[in-house]
Automatic annotation (TrEMBL):
Belongs to the aspartate/ornithine carbamoyltransferase superfamily. ATCase family. L-aspartate binds at residues 77, 160, 210. Carbamoyl phosphate binds at residues 49-50, 99, 127, 130, 249-250. Catalyzes the condensation of carbamoyl phosphate and aspartate to form carbamoyl aspartate and inorganic phosphate, the committed step in the de novo pyrimidine nucleotide biosynthesis pathway. Residues 2-140 form the Aspartate/ornithine carbamoyltransferase carbamoyl-P binding domain. It is an enzyme of class 2 (transferase). It holds the Pfam family OTCace_N. This is Aspartate carbamoyltransferase. It comes from the Bacteria. Heterododecamer (2C3:3R2) of six catalytic PyrB chains organized as two trimers (C3), and six regulatory PyrI chains organized as three dimers (R2). The keyword NADP does not apply. Keywords: Pyrimidine biosynthesis, Transferase. It comes from Aquibacillus albus. One of its GO terms (molecular function) is aspartate carbamoyltransferase activity.
């Protein structure tokens, strides 16, 4: 694994191995690398959870963090994304974590830069590490993917989270359903659209998405969104007894999900955030190990059990 930019690139076995590694790290920890390594976090777009969990993951692995803020960098002088990335590669960064508001920018960098690149979210493209932590959360709950029904609900058209999760979940054997208001549907994704009431009643996992106002040409109104398209208290009562609620956050409380449900017994939203650290540690570890950097105490690699 040279880069981590898209969930399209991985087989069922590869995804399960990565999930198992993240789960092992979550349960048992891992020894940090025993040599000086630098990780550059190039965030050209605002972030709280993704950026901070990368920082924690990097420091737990013993990496030194090179922070970057585009508003006080040479980007303000006209420097290209490529030249910024090339600068960090040139001064010794061992890997780059890149978040950018434009589609495909991270994919292009992965073909231009020699050190590993991690996609921390690119426009409406993908968000593979968010997907991995979502997969880890589902795995910890059900210990399988085959046969699960997962509903991804909300602003599908503008969501990189929806895209990465739909690709990976279907690869792992889950049945993926989408639910969205008509103008936010993305029919380039080959998955069935169903009504939200059908999704909450029949799915084992319901994943709600933030309304991506910053990506809309016309500002959408939140009026009555919860009642029409969100998770209300009444809809939650009709969920399967074992079903869980996910959301990549930040949550617009009272819009995508009723405020009282954000931390209810079904919700795994803050567990997702916890899992973000171990998921990102797993990706960084695998990339650096694959690049020939020797780990002091390799984690016990167990063969992934593929659920039937």
């Amino acid at each position: 694994m040279k880069n981590f930019v898209s969930m399209k690139h991985y087989s069922k076995h590869e995804l399960l191995q990565l999930i198992k590694l993240a789960n092992d790290i979550e349960q048992h920890g891992i020894q940090p690398f025993n040599q000086q390594l630098f990780a550059a976090n190039l965030f050209f777009e605002p972030s709280t959870r993704t950026k901070m969990s990368f920082v924690v993951a990097q420091r737990k692995l013993g990496l030194e963090v090179l922070d970057f803020m585009s508003d006080v960098s040479s980007v303000k002088k006209g420097e290209s994304v490529y030249d910024t990335a090339k600068t960090f590669e040139s001064i010794g960064a061992s890997l780059l974590v890149v978040r950018h508001p434009q589609d495909n920018v991270v994919h292009q960098l992965a073909n231009q830069i020699t050190v590993p690149i991690i996609n921390a979210g690119d426009g409406k493209g993908e968000h593979p590490t968010q997907c991995l932590l979502d997969l880890l959360t589902i795995y910890q709950e059900f210990e399988k993917f085959s046969g699960l029904k997962v509903g991804i609900i909300g602003d599908i058209k503008h969501s990189r989270v929806a895209r990465s999760n739909a690709y990976a979940l279907s690869t792992l054997g889950a049945k993926v359903y989408l639910s969205s208001k008509t103008e936010w549907q993305d029919h380039s994704l080959p998955y069935q659209y169903i009504d939200i009431d059908d999704a909450v009643e029949h799915c084992d996992v319901v994943m709600f998405l933030r309304i991506q106002h910053e990506r809309h040409e016309n500002q959408a109104s939140n009026d009555h969104y919860l009642e029409k398209y969100g998770l209300t208290a009444e809809r939650e009562k009709r969920m399967k007894p074992h079903a869980i609620i996910l959301h990549p956050a930040p949550v617009n409380r009272g819009v995508e999900i009723a405020d009282e449900l954000v931390e209810c017994n079904r919700s795994r939203i803050f567990k997702q955030m916890t899992n973000g650290v171990s998921a990102r540690m797993a990706v960084i570890y695998r990339l650096l190990e694959g690049g020939g950097i020797t780990h002091e105490k390799p984690i016990n690699q167990r063969k992934a059990i593929i659920s039937k």
